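worker-03 picked up job from queue 'complexes'. Input manifest follows; four sequence lines, order preserved.
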Amino acid sequence: MRTYKRPRMTDVALLAGVSPATVSLVINNRLSGNVRIPPDTQQRVLAAARSLGYVANPVAQSLAGARNRLLGVFTFDAIFPVQFRDFYYPFLVGVEHAAEELDFDLVLFTSTSTRDGRRHLYRQGVNRLRLADGAVLLGSEEDKEEVQRLVEEQYPFVFIGRRDLPHGRISYSAADYAAATQEMMDYLFDLGHRRIAYLGAPVVTESALDRRRGFQEAYRQRAIPLDPQWIWLHAERNLTAVLGTFLKQGITAVVAETGPFAPLIVQSCHELGVKLPQDLSLAFLGDLSDELPWELEATTFAIPRQEMGAAAVKLLAELLAQKDVTAVRQVTLPCRLSLGNSCTGPRTAAVAGVDLLGRAA
Amino acid sequence: MRTYKRPRMTDVALLAGVSPATVSLVINNRLSGNVRIPPDTQQRVLAAARSLGYVANPVAQSLAGARNRLLGVFTFDAIFPVQFRDFYYPFLVGVEHAAEELDFDLVLFTSTSTRDGRRHLYRQGVNRLRLADGAVLLGSEEDKEEVQRLVEEQYPFVFIGRRDLPHGRISYSAADYAAATQEMMDYLFDLGHRRIAYLGAPVVTESALDRRRGFQEAYRQRAIPLDPQWIWLHAERNLTAVLGTFLKQGITAVVAETGPFAPLIVQSCHELGVKLPQDLSLAFLGDLSDELPWELEATTFAIPRQEMGAAAVKLLAELLAQKDVTAVRQVTLPCRLSLGNSCTGPRTAAVAGVDLLGRAA
DNA sequence: TCAAGTTGATAATGCGTTTTATCGTTCCGT
DNA sequence: ACGGAACGATAAAACGCATTATCAACTTGA
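worker-03 finished. Artifact:
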């Protein structure tokens, strides 16, 4: 076991009878107006390099270049979660593709201690992200304060998914949930529905807010009256009871956020003896990772996860390339509607019947 | 808008009113016999670092010959392949877990150019892996020469999956395919089978060789005669024809490597009118990512992918901790048999009947 | 013949750490 | 009062390369 030493630039220089600078210039082909090396000298250098098996030390190269071509990937949950596998994976595929294309390597921040089982940007007040030139952030429940601090430290980063800070804006690549939701609503309105309810989780993430905004905007644009009670953010009350109330109120369609209770909705309908989609049209504001307990193909829209991941990396690369790395850049990507057979036109008979039971029109 | 620069050690030193050396010593907690920094100075340094958001530049650390607690992950294919998603993912889960536990961050080498669509360790002769303290290698069709070169450069790495080099051995964490295959064979022998065929791909990867070795060893240990023709490495010939020949020869069970043609075997059996498992027992030497086109539950064995990933990281960490980082360490993990209902005892009648058609016993 | 380019190449500096020998000071025991 | 520890901290070299201003020598044109 002897300590091996790679040949260095000076070794090549010595052998070729030139200076290290010359070697660097020749090897990297950095010959411009003021620096010129005649072809025969170049050949001499290259021959020397070859004969020694010389390869540049990338670490030294990075150090001399002031940038290390490393992009961080930070998730507020485990990066490769076992249960959410289908959630993160497509983002990472996009991130990897873009990084590969742009010649960046990726740093996965796994060491960041997990107090309370979640990841944190700072440990002992130190921002380990700084190890990379910039970072892509990802995760459903980020810590706003940590993100805010990142901004203050002028660290370049891009979020995957729209994020707003109490003070100021940040860069992100997002899916246009609002537009997609509105499009979904238009589809339902066009089918003839006039009373469409919204089912969601009682969270205030940006993505949820976007969907709700799209929901309300669709009503507004058509000048169709919207009862605030038709927006139900699932918390303590019984889902079956709520659906029952909806039906009594003449609701003929429901749009629902995706998530753990999506299957429960279908189940509740079964319990109520509601025929899908004849009695109730069901559309989901996102794509469903799990199969639903039914035989229908759900009407959903596809979140462009892979594209979002790639876009975030590209945005970040652009930030790093320009003078002001703290500039805010935002990209919004469209979602593609996927029409299954879980929606159909409302039965007029049912509507009439329900109107008798429901509130005054 | 001013161009942002990462805070450097000198910035911290200036703010704390000490020398860069002191900062380094405090931050890395390198206080030994001869070097001492009193607690209050330490606090001052740490406070300064915190307030600037300072974190050491890993590139500079590497250059200075120190460790940066970065572990590389290199795959010879895309890290997040779209089609082989189920293949790499479990390894990565294990890698992530272990890295998190051991306080390492991960570098995904995505930048390495893909001539011919595959990844290469060297681009223009440059080995970018050196950015990390060591690396975990992964991928089904590695380039032996590149790996050999890595060894020569004395770069510490661990392969996931057994690998042998023409000259010399390397570190790996592997699954014990040989033992698992042998166990599977014993299971079939115990069921009463005496003529078991092997179906595989015409490749010479270590994992395939291990399985074939286990296959032959099982025959040898029981002193049951093995016709070399019963080992069929699928290349040009028609799978259905081969299975037909097997049956004529009195074969009552087949063990098959997993892979793209696993479903084809079942299909061929259907074509031949072979009843599974009554006419032919079928066992797979690995786990099946895709569902097979049948109603049975396949008898397989589980490759401990997650454990392999974690073991590789732990091995690497151990290597890095010891004096000689080029030492060879190998770990072999057992596979767990998963008995479905695709295997059963041979029908004695059929065996007798076949003996008439087949070769002399 | 001389000023003005052109050519070929280099010296010097910077990149951001780690590491170790060394140095001045204070303290203690006798 | 003095030699020797213990203390606190630093200077300086090393790591291997990239960049750029500069320089000597050689041409060229008038």
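worker-03 released lock.
Residues 18-22, 25, 35-38, 41, 60, 62-66 of chain A lie near DNA strand C (CB under 10 Å from a C1').
Confidence is low (pLDDT under 50) at residues 349-361 of chain A.
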